[in-house]
Design goal:
mainly alpha, two-stranded antiparallel ribbon
């Protein structure tokens, strides 16, 4: 997830020295993000061991290396990323709910229209 996030926000590029010929637009949050996929919800379940009862434990799996498999970030950064991730999921759920509501309303209207047309044809 962290690698996806870094790629999405171009973290490596943004912390590089500022070029004298660059403009503020080059460093804006919107610059170039339209073509990249926004990372989804943070999911670290593949990094921690599963307990015997099926619950996810708090111990890292064997063989993981910091910098390759995971990154340690300050608590304030972690909280912000989790908030953003959860907020993004919330927005996706709202959008999906809205789409389902619209689609079901459309189906209802189409079904009622079909019954009405069939009723006219039958009489």
């Amino acid at each position: 997830w962290w690698r996806s996030w870094k790629g999405y926000v171009e973290l490596e590029e943004k912390i590089s020295p500022v070029d004298e010929d660059s403009t503020a637009e080059d460093y804006s949050e919107e610059a170039g993000t339209k073509d990249r996929c926004r990372p989804g919800v943070i999911d670290n379940s593949d990094l921690v061991r599963d307990e015997k009862d099926g619950s996810v434990g708090l111990e890292l799996c064997n063989g993981l290396q910091e910098g390759r498999d995971y990154e340690l970030v300050p608590e304030v950064v972690w909280k912000r990323l989790v908030e953003w991730s959860a907020y993004y999921l919330y927005l996706c759920c709202l959008l999906l709910s809205f789409m389902v509501l619209c689609f079901s309303s459309l189906l209802h209207v189409q079904f009622a229209r079909s019954l009405y047309i069939m009723g006219i044809l039958l009489f």
